[in-house]
Amino acid sequence: MFEAIGLQDARTLFGGCLARKDKEPVYIKEVDIIERKVQCVYYDLDQKKVLGAEVPQSFNFEPVELGYVTEGGQAYFVRRKPVRQYSMGLKAENVAVDLPKVYTDKTARDVMLLKGTGLRDCILGKFDSLRIALDKLENGVASSIGVSRSFAVSDKFEIFYRNKFVGVVNSDNGSPTFLNGKGYLKLVWGQNA
């Protein structure tokens, strides 16, 4: 399928993107043509360990679900920008990270560059349970934690829904209290957190 494309086109299409290999998110860092076949060299999401080289057909480039990514003790809301590009997969150019801190935060830059185990966990839907998250917040291990793709809780036990403050959570029993007009979120909270 991709045998007829040139190296520059292959690099534009596949280079620097997040895709999935056997359901696991991977980062395609380098693209080359070997024996007249496009080969994508892919890494883990820390972008330190080479996992292998495969033809593009071996990867799933379909969109992934995004949301809260917890990295470095801070929750970041990650969303796709409505940008059309001539490339496959998720790239840093089509991702927006709503920052809770100033942009100089290195962890935020890593998330924007599609790095880190927090992004991997978000894509796979792996989040701490609400009880574990509340314990970490009480013990000062984190300043905010994503408890689902849609919800995060801060160290002040504030609930954020898609990066907007919507209520508070009782740190003892985990029950939420939502702001007036946000009560409908209780149903979503019960499904997610």
Describe, in plain words, how this protein is organized in 3D:
- There is one protein chain.
- This protein is of the alpha+beta class and 193 residues long.
- The protein folds into 2 domains: 52 residues; 125 residues, no CATH class.
- 21% of the residues lie in helices and 34% in strands.
- The chain is built from 5 helices and 13 strands.
- The strands form 3 sheets. It has a 5-stranded antiparallel β-sheet with strand order 4-3-2-1-7. Strands 9-10-11-12-13 form a 5-stranded antiparallel β-sheet, covered by helices on one side.
- The protein is elongated.
Overall number of structural domains: 2
For the secondary structure, the number of strands is: 13
Give the rounded overall mean pLDDT. Answer: 85
Shape: elongated
**N-C termini distance:** 42 Å
Q: What's the helix count?
A: 5
Radius of gyration: 19 Å
Helix content: 10-25%
Strand content: 25-35%
Taking the sheet with the most strands, its summary is: 5 strands, antiparallel
Which strand order spans the largest sheet, edge to edge or round the barrel? 4-3-2-1-7
Structural classification: alpha+beta
Query: What is the H-and-E element order?
Result: HEEEEEEEEHHHEEEEEH
Low-confidence spans: none
Which short descriptors sum up this protein?
193 residues, five-stranded antiparallel beta sheet, single chain, 2 domains
